[in-house]
Amino acid sequence: MSGVSSMISKHTATPSGDTPALSIVIPFYNEAGNVDALLERLTAQMALIGGSFEIVGVDDGSRDATLAALIAACERVPEMRIVKLSRNFGKEAAMLAGIQEARGDRILLMDADLQHPPETIPAMLEVADRGVDVVYGARSNGRNDGWLRNTLSRQFYRIFASTAEMKIPADAGDFRLFSRRAADALRSLPETNRFMKGLYSWIGFSQESVPYDVGVRSSGSSKWPILKLFSYAWDGIISFSALPLRIWSVIGTVIATGALIYAMWIVISTLAFGRDIPGYATLASAIFFLGGLQLLSIGVLGEYIARIFAETKQRPIYIIEDIFGGTDDDGAK
Fold first, then answer.
1. What CATH class does 2-223+315-325 carry?
2. Local structure of residue 21 (DSSP, 8 states)
C-alpha cells in the first residue's frame, strides 16, 4: 500500500492544458465478456493513483458485442475513448492505432483479457519516475498457456536471441509503459510488417522490468492458436534477421564443394581403375535432393521478397472507421 500512496503524491498534479498524465491503450478483439471487469479494476486503480488519465480502447473489428460494451462503458467512464477500426487488422496494428491516438505524457499498453493486472501499474509508474523511458512487465509466474505453448515460447526466444540483431526479454509481452519520446519513436517507424516485441527493443532508450503475476483470463479464449503463433514467430525472425538467407548460402557452398569432390573422385577412380560411372539411381537421387533444396531456398527468399513487396505498396497499417467518447471536439470522426 505504501507504493500506491507514494504514487498518489507524485501524480495528483494535472498537466497543463488538456494533456492527460497517462494514456492507457487497450486493443480489443472479441472481448465483450471482459470489458466491464477490466474497466472496473482499472478505474479503481487509477482512482488510487490519482492524476489525469485517459483510456483508449481500440476495437479491432470485433465480431461479438465488444463495441457495444465499450460504447456503454463510455457513459460510466468519461475518460474513455473508443477507436473503431474498419476491420480486423491484427493486434500489432491495433496497438499502433491506440498509440497514435493517445495524448498522454506517458502511454501504457496492456491486454484486455485481465492477464495484465492493473494493480501492477503503480510499480511501473514508480520506475518511470526515475527517468526510465520503457518499463515492461516481466512474468514472474510464467504463462497460463499450458506446457506446449510454454515450451514453444521458450524455444522461440532462444532462437530469436541467437539470430536477431538485438535481444528481447523472454518473459515480457506487450504490458509496457512508455515515455512520450519512446512512444513517438515507436510510432515513427513506417514499416507495415510490425513485430512489436522486436521494435520495443530496437528503439533503444533506458528500459527496466517490473515483475507481475499473470492473471487468469476471466472470459473468452486466446486469439492465438498454435499455427498463428508459428506464423508470428516466423515473422519476427524474418523481420529482424537475415540468418535464414545466410544459412542457404552456407548450404549451397557445402553442397557445391561436396559435388566437386565427388566429381573428382569419379574421374580419378575411372582413370585409375576403369570403373563405370554410377548409373541412374545415383543421378535421380541427386536431382531430387538438389531440387528440393532449391525449392526450399526459393521459399525462404520469397518470404523476404513478399515483405519488400508489401512495404513498397505503402498501404496504411490500419483504417479508423469511427471514434467514440472523449471530451474534445475530435471525439467523432
1. alpha beta
2. S
